[in-house]
Design goal:
The chain is α/β, with parallel strands linked by helices and 482 residues long. It contains 20 helices and 15 strands. Helix 6 (131-136) links the parallel strand 4 and strand 5. Helix 4 (93-104) packs across helix 8 and helix 12 (299-312) packs across helix 18. The longest helix has 21 residues, at 440-460.
Length: 482
């Protein structure tokens, strides 16, 4: 009797950039692929392995492969394998530049791994542009992972093609202009555009990303079609990108334990956090503040935030991960602040279980730097936002929230800074917090974002747009292998 061998599982290799905002969602994507019965491998470096292992702890079918990070070859201090290392030690942009150079030295080790493993697909972060050529050497398709949403991607490409290079010194120009070619009329100023103060190595890396993207198999986007339909169509039809929209990927985490394991270990036990939130009997009564793992504020700015919170009278949870300088609490909190706000406020000094907090019914609004992970987590949880962009693509995300979706209130930041934040006074903080927490406008925003949150959940369930897009990608890979 003839025996029929089962075809081996499709094998997908993931290579995340060494920064929390990039690694966390790509690990969720790896879990989604594993849930479709695909063989899944994550490539990382030794000092980044604990972050990876923590998030995929229950996913025994996901393999982890390590590449040695070339710290010495790039002239980096020992232990510098992650963007957080540079920022937490305030090492400056010259070290960031050497870090960017170090990532290019991973090309040869990755190619040796590809030769050995021969995966059917490589999903590599956008900041590894060389991965397109590396995969092509072995006839393997490479998909680009974008940490951004569709709106920000479309806006950034338009600005790169139509503004940079044609308007010298545009990033110092406060004059508003309309971003060309977008489905909506979106106005921004030059000062709100990315103005990286980087040396040549990082600039070269960034500009190589688009060209490599055009030659890749396509892009994976952490969003969902119903959130940005015009920009999904614009990306595919006008910009010519082959895009699979498979988010919000954070929703693959179903339990409190899974949600709290995303990222590094929280500075507060999730049960302690939930206990505090459960003590708030009134829904939508707590405002949550967090500015991500990279953003920094001066002690003076943190003090303004604290005074604005206190004068708003709202209950709050505030995650403070980092600040500029070596200041202790007394330098950035008004005297007696924690005593006066005892029971009303909870300050988390470090990483917070953000998804757990946002999904709690007591939380009614989110003050955020508009990083895309935080933005999408808030939308999935149905929370309106105070937008406080700092760097990256965050000013584009602010425009999506305030002008397109109309579920956010701008705090009024006028300039892209990446690190250091802005000079926003306490009265402005108070007004913005009150605007998303109470009144007719707040209720209208909350209603809209709750509807979007329901759409997000449907998108990732069987038959939903994101679920179907991931299935379509797997089917295409299967056909190409056959």
């Amino acid at each position: 009797m003839a025996t029929h061998q089962l075809a081996p599982k499709l094998h997908v290799l993931f290579f995340p950039y060494m920064a929390h905002g990039h690694t966390i969602p790509i690990l969720d994507i790896a879990k989604l692929f594993a849930s479709r019965n695909l063989k899944t491998t994550i490539v990382t470096t030794p000092l980044n392995q604990p972050l990876v292992s923590r998030q995929i702890k229950s996913q025994t079918e996901i393999d982890v492969q390590l590449l040695q990070f070339p710290t010495a070859e790039a002239g980096l201090p020992e232990g510098c394998e992650h963007l957080d290392f540079i920022l937490s030690r305030k090492l400056g942009w010259d070290v960031y530049d050497r870090f960017s150079f170090a990532t290019t030295l991973l090309q040869h080790p990755l190619e040796k791994l590809l030769q050995e493993l021969r995966p059917d697909l490589v999903v590599a972060d956008q900041f590894f542009p060389w991965a397109t050529d590396s995969a092509a050497k072995f006839g393997i398709p490479r998909i680009v992972f974008h940490g951004n949403g569709l709106f920000a991607m479309c806006a950034a490409i338009s600005v790169e093609q139509n503004i940079y290079g044609k308007r010298p010194n545009v990033t110092s120009d406060p004059t508003p202009f309309v971003i060309p070619d977008l489905p909506d009329e979106i106005t921004i100023t030059g000062k709100q555009l990315p103005a990286y103060p980087f040396p040549s190595e990082t600039v070269k890396l960034f500009w190589g990303c688009r060209e490599a993207e055009l030659r890749s198999f396509g892009v994976i986007v952490n969003s969902f079609y119903e959130l940005e339909p015009a920009y999904a169509d614009h990306c595919r039809n006008f910009l010519g990108r082959k895009a699979w929209i498979i988010g919000p990927v954070s929703l693959c985490n179903r339990t409190v334990v899974e949600k709290s394991r995303r990222g590094i270990e929280a500075s507060i036990d999730e049960h302690e956090c939930l206990k505090w939130l459960n003590s708030k009997k009134k829904p939508n009564s707590v405002v949550y503040l967090s500015f991500g793992s990279i953003s920094e504020f001066s002690a003076a700015q943190l003090k303004e935030i604290a005074m604005g919170l206190e004068s708003s009278g709202k209950d709050f949870i505030w995650s403070v991960i980092r600040q500029t300088g070596e200041n202790d609490d007394e330098d950035w909190l008004p005297e007696g602040f924690e005593e006066r706000t005892k029971g009303k406020g909870l300050i988390i000094r470090g990483w917070a279980p953000q998804v757990v907090i946002l999904e709690h019914e007591a939380v009614g609004g989110f003050v955020s730097h508009c990083g895309w992970n935080s933005t999408l987590e808030a939308i999935a949880a149905g929370k309106p936002m105070v937008t406080w962009p700092i760097g990256g693509e965050q000013f584009y995300n602010e425009k999506l929230l305030t002008e397109v979706l109309k579920i956010g209130v701008s705090v009024g930041v006028e300039q892209w800074t990446q690190i250091g934040g802005a000079s926003i006074k306490s009265e402005t903080v108070k007004m913005a917090v009150n605007k998303i927490m109470e009144g007719e406008e707040a209720e209208e925003m909350r209603k809209k974002v709750k509807e979007l949150g329901e759409m997000a959940k449907k998108a990732v369930e069987k038959g939903g747009s994101s679920y179907s897009d991931l299935n379509a990608l797997v089917d295409e890979l299967q056909k190409s292998r056959n």
